[in-house]
Amino acid sequence: MSSDFLPEDNLSVTTFTLDGHICSIFSPDGNIKAKKNQFSWPEIVRDLCAGEGLDPRAAQAGRGGIFYFSSNRSPQPVVVRQYRHGGWWRYFSQARFFSQARFLTELRIHRRVAELGVPIPEAVAVIVLKREKWAVFVSGYFVTLRLQDSLTLPEFLESAESKTRLQIFFKLGSYLKKLHVHGIFYTDMHVKNILVTADGEPWLIDFDKAKELAAPLSFGYRLANLKRFLRSLEKYSSRGGCLTESDRSAFLLAYAHDSNVYTQLFRKLNRGLFWRRLGYRLGWLLNRS
Fold this sequence. Notes:
Helix content: 40-55%
Strand content: 15-25%
Low-confidence stretches: 1-8
Shape: globular
Number of domains: 2
C-alpha cells in the first residue's frame, strides 16, 4: 500500500491480511507505542467488518459508523470511527475512498492539536483496509482512547449550573483561539463534537477534514469557523436546548481576549444574522421533514 506520510511523521505501520483484505495499522509514536502490541488488531478488524460494537444511536443520529471496544480487544476501551463521505457523494461511494491521505491527514493534525495542549482523546491508530484482488478503493477507521463518563455538550448542558456553563464556553473560546493562532482550521466544530467529562472539562473530537494552514489563520477562515460553531448552537437552541446569550458571549469574549476586538467581532458575526438564522431554520425544517 502506498505511503501518504513523510518519515518525520514518526508513524509505525503494521500490515497483515485477513479475510481477503490487506490491513494496515498506522500508529503514532508516543505514550501509546509501548501498548501497541497489546491491541488485538486482527480481532478488532474482524469485528469491524462484521458490524460488532456498532453504536446504533450514532448511526440514527447521522454520525455514521461509531464502534466501541472494551478490554477484551485492547488494553483500554477505545472508540473507532469509520470514515464516510458527506453530502451527495455519500449516496454513491459511502465509505469507499481512492486514497488513505484523508485518514493520515487527520492523524497528523490530531497529534498537532494534542501538542498545543488542547484537550482531545489520545489517538491510537488509523486502520486502512483494501481488498487483496481487483481493489481500487480503500476504507478507513480512526481509533482513539475512549473518554470515560463523558457526555456530549448538549447532554451536559441539560443539567449544568450557570457558572459551570460559562466556564465551559470560556474554555472552548480559548481553545479555538489557540487552534487559529497556530493555523488549525477545525472544519467540523459543532456541539456534538464536544465531549464534557465529569470534572467539567470540554474535549474536542473528530478532526476529519480539518486543515493545517498558514499561521495564524486569516480573518476569513477564523470568521467562517466561528460562524460554523455558532450555527450549531443556534440549531441546538432552536430545538429546545438550554442556551443563553451569556454562554455565547463567554465563548466570544474568551476567543477575542480583548473588549475592543470582542466588539468588532460581535458586530461582524451579527451582520446579516437575522437572514442567516431564517435560512438555517428553513434548512433544518426541510431536513427533518
